[in-house]
Amino acid sequence: MPVSPSGSEPDKKRTGIEVSIEEIEELADAYEIRAKYKIEVIFSRHRSSLAHKPSPCMVQIWESGKRLHGGGDQKMYWCGHDDCGWPISSDNFAHFHVVCPKCQKESFLDLDSKAQHMKNLRSRGINPQDLGRIPQVVGEKLVNLTPPDLARLLEKTWRQLDGLADIYLKYSPYEIRYDALHETTKDMDNLDKVRVQRKPLSYPLKNIMKDLSAGADLQGRLLMMITC
Ligand SMILES: [Zn+2]
What we know:
alpha+beta
């Protein structure tokens, strides 16, 4: 609600303390915590919603609105060291490698960078043996997890991203759900039409914060989202 111009409500003198509900809501929106990151899960066509059955999927993390003047997301990576695995912004990338801000250890950007770097050392008469042990950063986590394990991974990743991420679940357009019991040849002919064109499920940070402040358990919420 716009602030009324002075004189429109002569009986109510503004003291600076009286504000309407609409004004409070407007303020709350203006000061809303902005999600800095996105966590995306992309399921393969073999997704199962059964709690005990693992489903293959790919997890990626993004910095929201970091590219193209706020119009695009910038991909993030994970530290390549198994005992760390912390999310790393590609802003930290150097020419061949990146130093993890968490464990301070080096990872290569990819295997080509590693090979190139080792070749350079060899040409300068340096034995690159130690470099051989340095891993490369992880761009996407390819996992095969049961819904509870995936919910655990998502909560862990969300917390590693300072609790400032939206979470998205995306489904394969080739995921097919049909009634096997009543399947007919005609149904098989029509398989293309029954492909699930399911929209991504999103759990925006605003809702996560609302749920958490109402005492909800994030992992439980994520599990519900994954199995629905
Ligand atoms: Zn690390």
